[in-house]
Amino acid sequence: MTGLPASTLRYYESIGVISPISRGASSRHRLYDEDDLDQLMWVACLAATGMSVSDMRRYVANGQLGPAAAGEQIKLLAEQEQRLALEAQQVVLRQRYVRLKIDYWKAVQAGDDARTELLSTEARALADQLKGAKKPERTRRRRADQPGPQVRVATLAWKSRPDVSARRLCRRSRAHPPTQQMPEDR
């Protein structure tokens, strides 16, 4: 109904983006009522805008406060709108660059050296703009299923101590195994 996978729903519940969902007495399956579905639909829409999980959590918590939180809600949404506007500007720049490269190769194909040179100069200038374009700031927190600092420490230790297996280091650090491919234990 919401378009969100069950794993995302469980994750949102576990970190407090949505309130705990009631469960069936015998099956212990989650039972979503109309209010839950309404809240999930709003959260799904916020997620579709690219809003960070922490901002979604604040938005939902503020919603419980009603009109008293209107200022905070406006601020959260205005910040998201600014992030989206910046992303849109970056997409436009990338599209212009691709269009220039298409035109460049058409000019090359047609043997139009003057146009090729002009488009090459424009593409270089646009490439400089793309490099200097400010990336949208996002505050992302580490999800529970993403490798944390312990994995990075284990990976670094493994690289510096090839005589010790990655699995042994991970067991020592009580972390999940690193995501990169590692050689078999020696």
Essential attributes:
mainly alpha, disordered C terminus, 186 residues, Multidrug-efflux Transporter Regulator, Chain: A, Domain 2
Shape: elongated
The CATH top-level class label of the domain at 6-69: Mainly Alpha
CATH topology of the domain at 6-69: Multidrug-efflux Transporter Regulator, Chain: A, Domain 2
Tell me the distance between the termini. 50 Å
Task: Tell me the CATH architecture of the domain at 6-69.
Answer: Orthogonal Bundle
Beta-strand percent range: under 5%
Quaternary state of this entry equals single chain
**For the residues shown, what is the average pLDDT?**
75
Summary?
The chain has 186 residues and is an all-alpha fold.
Model description:
By secondary structure, the chain is mostly helical. Among the domains are: 6-69, Multidrug-efflux Transporter Regulator, Chain: A, Domain 2; 147-186, no CATH class. The chain is 63% helix and 0% strand. It has 7 helices and no strands. The chain has helices at residues 6-15, 34-48, 53-63, 70-110, 113-132, 149-160, 166-173. Helix 4 (70-110) packs antiparallel against helix 5 (113-132) and helix 6 packs antiparallel against helix 7 (166-173). The protein starts with 5 loop residues before the first helix and ends in a 13-residue tail after the last helix. Residues 139-186 have low confidence and may be disordered.
